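Q: How would the structure tokens look for this protein?
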Amino acid sequence: MVAGEASGDLLGAHFIAALKQAHPGLRAAGIAGPRLIQAGVEAVYPSEKLAVNGYVEVLRHLPELLWIRSRVTRYFLRERPRVFVGIDAPDFNFTLEAKLRQAGIPTVHFVSPSIWAWRPERIQRIRQAVSHMLVVFPFEEAIYRDAGIPVSYVGPPLADVIPLEPDVAGARATLRLDGGPVVALLPGSRLSEVKRHARLMLDAAVRIRSRHPDARFVLPAANEAAARLIGRARQGLDLPLDVLAGQSHTALAACDVALVASGTATLETALFKKPMVITYRVPALTAHLMRKKALLPWIGLPNILARDFVVPERVQEAATAANLADDALAWLADAPRHAALTETFRTMHLALRQNASARIAEALEPYIGESA
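A: Here is the predicted structure in token form.
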């Protein structure tokens, strides 16, 4: 298996645990992060090696990525796994999956790329690479069925793991937060995202604190490298900020509002029923290409699922500290709007709860068989 970054590591850990419970002798190996390793996956390479995004950054790391993919391809061709599972990381995984499938190894891909948002022509490449697609959103199933690609809707594991009612008091006690409003800052799990968003969010936090002097800020760092970047970004700022080692769910349960980089974290924030401001910055060339190919007016998963701007998005030129702070302050000042959003997110959460780990294990069962 290959999990390309922190979100894939988290998604994979849930269903690997379910598979190992059904098949105690199951062996899983590949590119994995700390959660998959903890779940018993043998790491051939660490997943952070694949955590790059944007055309410019991918080009910068292309030689290393191609070298890793070549080595991993040879590893799986030698080991001949009963099934290969690629988790997200489509640009890396689809080429690998196509080679493995051509060699007679079944390939299952978990988490569809957003072909419904941009670059829909990728469906042709997917048809060549993937034996079976596992999708997390209900509207994706018809896209693959219409394209003649075997597909199963499994739902997002996060919807099963995150409680319908977050324990706000417990989370605040864990983080020793009391008194004023709590603002969570989630700049992204990739180091490139942290570089682009951490200082932006911290500058917004300074502005929020000027209106709420008793505000507290929490920032979950995905790993030690991210924590070091955040430490440099906060230099010179007088801010009551707790940088956490992971603990994103605790931070989201505790907060009143969140500033969130677009990605899986926006879905997590919605599942915790928290108001948010979604932001994203990419290199100018990447932004230009994405705007030309975009099919939807939204980038954040909560807005895409709701088919509406239920939370504000501040992207590229609009991603300023002033805009992020103003949007966050508006959430803190509008209790009725907050309550309406909570109901929207609760309905969304209930619809997405599908017992995903069991569904994924069921979809993989024909490939694993009784001998695992």
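The two ends are 16 Å apart (CA to CA).

The first helix runs from residue 6 to 22.

Upvote if useful.
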